[in-house]
Structure formats: C-alpha cells, structure tokens
C-alpha cells in the first residue's frame, strides 16, 4: 500500500496497543516510523530494474524476520529493566501484589509492551501489502513464493480514511471517545479488507463462466481507488484479454473483452534468460513479451491497464544467436491524462459507458 496508508496503520496500531500507558503522540510517532520501515528496502540497488522490483517486499516484509527484529528495534524506544530476584519491589503494599509485572519487567508501558506493539506494526504492514496484487514474500526464508491476493488497490481512500480519522481523534483528546474512535477506525478498515476479498471472489465466480477461452487463467483486481469496478485479465499462451466488471452496473451483462496477441515463440526462445524467467515467475504468468524495433520489451500485466502499465521493461536487443544484449531498463510509463482517466473511471463504474479507456478516449477525439 501507499506510504500514507502504511504510516497511518502503524500509528493506529501503536496507539491501540499502548493505550494510555504512554503519550499517544509517542506511540503514534513510533508506529508511523515502524509502519514505514519495511518499505525502505527500495533504497537498495539489486543490479537492474527487474531485480529491484522482485526483491522489494522480500526479507523486510517476511514475518519470521520481523519477529526477530522487533525486540531489537524496540531498544530504540524502550529499555528492558530486569530485576534481580533479591532486589526490593519497586512498589509496596497491595499495589505490589496487584502488579506482578513489577518483579520482572518495568511496567506494561515498558519494553515488553513496546515490543508487542512493534511486532504488530511490522506484521500488519506486511499482511496489508499481501492484500495487493504486487505480492509480498511473507514466508521467507522457508518459502519464497509471494502472496498477492489483489483485492485492494495500492491506494484506496475507503481503507485509509477510517484510520486517519480514528487516529486524529485519539491524538486530540484523552477522553474515552477519542480512543474508542481509534478502535472503530481499525475495525472499519479491517472490515473493508474483508469486503474487498468477498467482492473479488464474487466477481471471479461471475466472470469464470464468460472467459474468452475455456483454458484461460483469470486475474481479478480492483480498479484505482475503489472496490466497485474490477479489472479482468484472462491469459493463454497466444493471447491476453482485458475486460471490466462493475458491481453497480454490469449485473449479468456479458463481459466485453479486448483481445491482444502474445508471442509464444519469443518466450520459448528467451524463457531461460534470467530476467525473463524472474519476471515471468514474479507475475504468476501474467506477462507480455514482445519485440518493438530492435528491443525486447516485457510487461507485468497485473498492474496498470491497457496500454499503460506500471512495470514495463526494455530487457535488451535480440541477437541472431537468440540471446539478449544490453542493459535492462525501465522506460517512463506513458499514462493517459489524469483528468480523462478519472472521468472514464467514474463513467465506467456507473455503467454510463461500456468502452474501455482506449476506445473511450479515442471516441472523444483525444
């Protein structure tokens, strides 16, 4: 997810775990920092753009490594204060028996609780990323396949706003309604994720009966900023197809598929190339490989829409020997005008057009 959402989630989890045992601003600040930390793996250069893409959300997002790191990271905000069994209690009388934690760690607002908060912040970051289609390598080092449910777009205001509002309420007041608002924000955002997965499953079942080819693999992902209009990608060895389905408008209407050719011979020739093999695996087979001039271009079809994709790579020039030469490069994405793209999104969501973005812009003469 986007940085604002991850920082908001981290801050909300931090305040929720720490409660009023420490200043809310301190828990929120720590939570925002830890919620941002896993994504700092983007600063590392792994050698080429494809490796940089596929190594993102790897070790820094793996649950095992996060659990190992949490106690160490907590040392930046809290210190363990272990007591020798023979030392006197830091409290006396009935308070000592009602607070057994005083014999071991400092207090519930000390190192132990900060460690719990840190671990939950890191884990919720990784799990939320696993809800997007990009994929997150949650199970390293035991299993290196990425988890990518793809039921939420990377930016979705309906997920983020409840977190921000609840967090804001918890920071401006110490009254009970502020903390309750935070808990409500976390609940609503979590329920939204449940809704997104249920809606995705429903659309997938609905569309399965309308596949353009019976043996096509199907990908269902939300369009930008919502979980109402869904992008459909069906793929075979020889073609890939793009379509759209709106929960508000399409009902039992047939899916309008746009068919585009693939080049299976080119893939057979290059499938052992490290860059081709890496991206083919990372994209779960939803890729397009083509020759444009003297260049070979490879595209991850999961993110973006025709013809503008987020991850598109020049992987070299094809030589007579069947090998690629030249560096892997990532050209700038050629996106349609933002205003027109948002206008189409609104129109298509409400069923006011059955055209996809390419045809809609062409019909407007743009």
Polypeptide structure, described:
There is one protein chain. With 366 residues, the chain is of the alpha+beta class. The protein folds into two domains: 3-152, no CATH class; 217-325, no CATH class. Helix content is 43%, strand content 14%. The chain is built from twelve helices and ten strands. The strands form three sheets. Strands 1-2-3-4 form a four-stranded antiparallel beta sheet. Strands 5-6-9-10 form a four-stranded antiparallel beta sheet, covered by helices on one side. It has a two-stranded antiparallel ribbon with strand order 7-8. Strand 5 and strand 6 form a beta hairpin. Helix 1 crosses helix 2. Residues 92-106 have low confidence and may be disordered.
How does the SSE layout of this entry go?
Layout: H1 3-18, H2 24-36, H3 49-55, H4 63-74, H5 94-98, H6 111-129, H7 157-172, H8 176-208, E1 217-222, E2 229-235, E3 239-246, E4 258-261, H9 264-270, H10 274-282, E5 287-292, E6 295-300, E7 304-305, E8 308-309, E9 312-318, E10 324-325, H11 338-349, H12 357-363
Antiparallel strand pairs: 1-2, 2-3, 3-4, 5-6, 6-9, 7-8, 9-10
Helix pairs in contact: 1-2, 1-6, 1-7, 1-8, 2-6, 4-6, 7-8
């Amino acid at each position: 997810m986007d940085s604002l959402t991850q920082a908001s989630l981290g801050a909300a989890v931090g305040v929720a775990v720490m409660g009023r045992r420490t200043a809310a601003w301190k828990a929120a600040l720590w939570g925002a920092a830890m919620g941002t930390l896993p994504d700092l793996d983007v600063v590392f250069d792994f050698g080429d753009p494809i490796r940089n893409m596929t190594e993102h959300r790897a070790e820094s997002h793996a649950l095992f490594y996060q659990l190992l790191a949490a106690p160490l990271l907590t040392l930046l905000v809290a210190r363990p204060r272990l007591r020798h069994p023979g030392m006197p209690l830091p409290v006396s009388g009935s308070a000592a028996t009602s607070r057994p934690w005083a014999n071991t760690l400092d207090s519930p607002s000390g190192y132990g609780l900060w460690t719990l908060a840190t671990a939950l912040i890191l884990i919720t970051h990784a799990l939320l990323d696993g809800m997007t289609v990009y994929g997150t390598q949650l199970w390293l080092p035991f299993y290196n396949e990425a988890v990518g449910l793809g039921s939420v777009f990377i930016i979705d205001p309906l997920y983020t706003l409840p977190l921000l509002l609840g967090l804001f309420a918890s920071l401006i007041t110490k009254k009970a309604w502020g903390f309750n608002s935070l808990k409500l924000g976390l609940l609503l955002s979590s329920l939204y994720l449940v809704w997104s997965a249920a809606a995705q499953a429903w659309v997938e079942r609905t569309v399965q009966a309308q596949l353009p080819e019976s043996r096509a693999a199907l990908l269902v992902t939300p369009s930008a900023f919502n979980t109402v209009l869904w992008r459909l990608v069906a793929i075979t060895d020889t073609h890939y197809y793009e379509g759209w389905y709106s929960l508000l408008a399409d009902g039992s209407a047939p899916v309008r598929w746009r068919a585009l050719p693939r080049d299976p011979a080119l893939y057979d020739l290059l499938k052992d190339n490290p860059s081709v093999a890496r991206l083919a695996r990372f994209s779960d087979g939803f890729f397009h490989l083509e020759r444009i001039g003297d260049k070979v271009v490879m595209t991850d079809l999961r993110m973006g829409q025709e013809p503008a994709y987020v991850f598109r790579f020049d992987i070299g020039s094809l030589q007579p020997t069947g090998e690629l030469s030249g560096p892997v490069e990532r050209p700038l994405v050629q996106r349609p005008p933002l205003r027109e793209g948002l206008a189409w999104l609104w129109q298509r969501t409400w069923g006011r057009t059955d055209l996809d973005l390419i045809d809609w812009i062409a019909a407007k003469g743009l």
